[in-house]
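Anyone have tokens for Phosphopantetheine adenylyltransferase? Sequence:
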Amino acid sequence: MSKKAIFPGSFDPFTKGHEDIVLRGLKIFDEVIIGIGHNSKKIRHFDVEKMAQLIQHNFLKFPNIKVIVYDELTANLAKKHGANYILRGLRNTTDFEYENSISQVNRNLNQEIETVFLITSPKYAAVNSSIIREIHKYGADISPFVPFKL
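Reply: yep, here.
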């Protein structure tokens, strides 16, 4: 039985930190599905379909990485795609508190789901999408933080 993980997020934008988690996740899982979800609390800065295309293109050398856009509960998405794992990255204790609550709810919604947390590589610990959006909004160079040209 193959080990398949969903790596969910709004990825607005997808960062080098996200890329690092996906590539490290491939050492654990046979397949990683990057799920770009709709967050009802956020207004997107970058077009979701364009972001999906850029991410997919970024991982062309990896047939075991797929990118999808979804608008449903992550636990249901995982079940639909036969994934028993949710992959998440943690930068700090604040991330842990937030992600821990979500993982418990996902487990409640789908008993087959296990959430696996990877600690962010130190060189990406300060990188987050909110800061990158702000930098981009004011026309500064975001290329040090994203794995492709936006």
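The two ends are 37 Å apart (CA to CA).
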